[in-house]
From TrEMBL, chain A:
Signal peptide residue numbers: none
Keyword annotations: 4Fe-4S, Iron, Iron-sulfur, Metal-binding, Repeat
The protein's name in its UniProt record: (2Fe-2S)-binding protein
2Fe-2S ferredoxin-type domain residues: 1-81
SUPFAM superfamilies: 2Fe-2S ferredoxin-like, 4Fe-4S ferredoxins
Domain 4Fe-4S ferredoxin-type: 157-186
Taxonomic lineage from the root: Bacteria, Pseudomonadati, Thermodesulfobacteriota, Desulfobacteria, Desulfobacterales
GO molecular function, one term: 4 iron, 4 sulfur cluster binding
Organism: Candidatus Desulfaltia bathyphila
Amino acid sequence: MKVSVIIDGQMVQIEQGAPIIDAAKKAGIFIPTLCYHEALKPYGSCCLCIVEVIQDGQRRLVTSCNFPAAVGMEIFTNTARVRQSRRMIVELLLVRCPDVPLLQTMAKQMGTGLSRFKTREANECILCGLCVRFCEEVVGVGAIGLANRGVDREVATPFKMASDVCIGCGSCTYICPTGCIKMVSDRKTPNLRSLKMGNCSLVPCPNSYQCETCQIEQEFFKDIKRVIAEFRSKGQ
Amino acid sequence: MQKIRTISDLEDIRESILQDKDSEKTIIRLCLSTGCRAQKSLKVNEALENEIKKYGLQNKIEIKKTGCHGFCEMGPIMVIEPANIFYCNVKPKYAGDIISETVLNGNVINRLLWKDPLTKELTKTEKDFPVYRKQRKNVFYNSGKIDPTDIDDYIAAGGYSALGKALATMTPPEIVKTVVDSGLRGRGGGGFPTGIKWRICSAAPGDIKYIIANGDEGDPGAFMDRSLMEGDPHAIIEGMIIAAFAIGANQGFIYIRKEYPIAIDHLSIAIKQAEECGLLGNDILGTGFNFTIKIDRGAGAFVCGEETALMISIEGRSGIPRSRPPYPAFEGLWGKPTVINNVETFANIPKIILKGADWYSSIGTSTSKGTKIFSLVGKVRNTGLIEVEMGTTLREIIFDIGGGVRKGKRFKAVQTGGPSGGCIPISRIDMPIDYDSLKDAGAIMGSGGMIVMDETSCMVDVARYFINFLLFESCGKCIPCREGLKQMHHILTNICEGLGEKGDIERLEELAHFMMATSLCGLGGTAPNPVLSTIRYFRDEYDAHIYDKKCSAGVCKNLFEYVIDAELCNGCTICKLKCPEKAISGEKKKPHSINPLLCIKCGICFNLCKREAIRVK
């Protein structure tokens, strides 16, 4: 069912229950995000996408990436309260990761060059969880996860040991908005790709991706070929 | 144990239990909940059993191992029936006297009675207690009276008759309507009307629905859920069965943290007994209704008390809240409609069903109905659990029931609602306690913790303590809560260390309002409360810390000095002898002085001085 919502004065029709950010896209309104990606389920951790919503007479701030649109909803994406909150988020992130170019650019766009908070941490990861979710939802591997709680939260492999399930696809490197996951080649073992996240290396394929000569690969394909052959013979 | 197949069976069993009761028997109700166990009530039990064996009175005296009586300050506590003699601070060595004097000869032992510290009067029975006089025990009625590990005791006390009434005479919509009309609001903190929650969930589409009882109590200084689970587990189970029948659920969960082993134990026993009796399982009381309860043990994360995180934890993933909507009543545990209520909320249900919505809504204020259990702790004389009617004033709770502040110090503030609550000052002490007035005062009802503070508590330090607690208990998912708390903690630590600057208070306020508006879940949304409420009522203390670099309470070590008042000091030399740093000098019977360069501000001399000659400057 389609519902119409008013976003910054424009009437937009979208599916009921679809997130507000879809309506903004339809209306051509840009909403800054950090943890949102079209290919992934909404997560709502960066809160940068907040918008002000009036629903049932209540006016409040919600995250547009996962708040479902409903009939009669009025949305404002650029009020003073929204701008102020976004600025505060970027400021807080700048404390955590002062050297990340993306955050510096964002801060400049929002009109705060420097953070008013004095502490400086030497972090690069903003814990948006994109890499973790991409690895699990799109790649289907789940080699990394978010470990610990609160201030100690971090992205890591299980028990911070070299992962035996990582396929070295590099998706996490690609999707990371701050570029804190780097792809490095290990020079000691040629052809071996490994991902380096902080201090833990993910060692992927035990046979260094020598697929043509790999025993595991050949047996796997033998099985697949047999299944396909059986399937075809049944069909005829 | 006899299987209860129909509702008339239940009444027959109740009668037979009451008939079997030996009215000649003396019953000693001894508290064996966590608080009294910490004060060796298990040893008291052992000593009493030995004495009874010695006199050969096994058939004449019964020791009933009950849950919490509420007056935890003076544990271990026992009540001797039929005269209801109330003994407190019972030590194992008194067991012989108790049996030989009180039980056999009927003499009251004066040294075991409670003595009012102000009037020096002795209190003989439970009813005469000032602590109990202003209370209204409704939910907590059975705790301290029945043996929680014995279903017969609960049935004899009228238990499960509400379930019988609900299943026999009411339809699910009628039950929901009764709960809505009663005005019961969630006791876990949010205060959402329970009946409305049930109505939404019962109307939600889906065949499979779940009931969850939230027993994940994590507030520092709060233990009412634990005591309820330990002292009256069947009331929670009965409430859950009624709720399940009302919304059409067949599976229930009770989420308890692993730190509550006795609560887990008692609830497991209670569930097993209810299953054996046929009150849980298939075809309950012959009505064709099936319901089972499982206990899920949490690892003690504070954030798992948040409903979405709790459900994710039950599902077996790490407990991290998700954004709402969808609300649990539509999409909860494993995506199915779920009713999640606090254990205290469920314990209210049997009474509402039995006595009706009108009776319940006649108790309390216009917006908050019924009674509420509070854990009264901190610098108050009578520490313990109390249950009062909604609308009772803070003054009545702290001064009449709690006996006022200890050691003649002055009352400063009371912190309600756990770490996410706020501090209420003396100026608002005549405020009636209910959900809305607390919110209006900048605090929350929370699960019902009340920490009383006197003049030796620094309010900036209190705010820093709670923010520090939340900093490590926040899940760390959303930026406002994780990074906001980190900055708040940093600013508050600076102020406490004497590094506060102009603009810090404004920065704290801006951060607080930002966090409240944008945080993902209730934890982040209420986390700034301790900061905002202390700024609101104790701004002068913040100013003194930042501008004058003074902490008048004597807590922030960089911001005060201990000095000896030469007029009051009589030169008893106690402070000089006990000072670990040898910072105090002076001759006998002459005023002493403290060398500020050597003093480490440990406070030993301050606490030792009987003439109160040592002051905070």
